[in-house]
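S.,

Sequence below, as promised.
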Amino acid sequence: MKRTIIYVVSAILLVGLIGVALAVHRQNKADRAADEKADQLIASLQQDGYTAPSKDQIVRVLGSDGGMVCTDPGRALGRAILLDKLSNGSGGPGERPVIADRRSVRGGLRIVQIYCPEKIDAVKSYVDDLKLSGGDTA
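The prediction came back faster than expected:
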């Protein structure tokens, strides 16, 4: 009877430890992917002449899957947020749309290209319809 209890407790502990090991392994894999994508984004932003946020900030906000940026970037909420950012900055009734520089949306496009490339066409088609000044967005 004592050996049976020891075997059952040992089996439960073994299964628990295997579960923890699998969870830690998956987390480390996601962390490596997040680090690689953050490095890629930083290099891309610096190549475009931007000052990139720190790697830790990018990993925290975008993770390995792009976070909220890639949730549904071409839909109404993403478009509304973009249009809100492309305004004169005053609040309430004084807020007006502006003809923004294409560079102002280039960083967001870089995020979509790196973290969710399958959604870039929807975002680009929307950005191409905006009245922007300057060169190309890519």
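The chain has five helices and no strands.

Coffee later?
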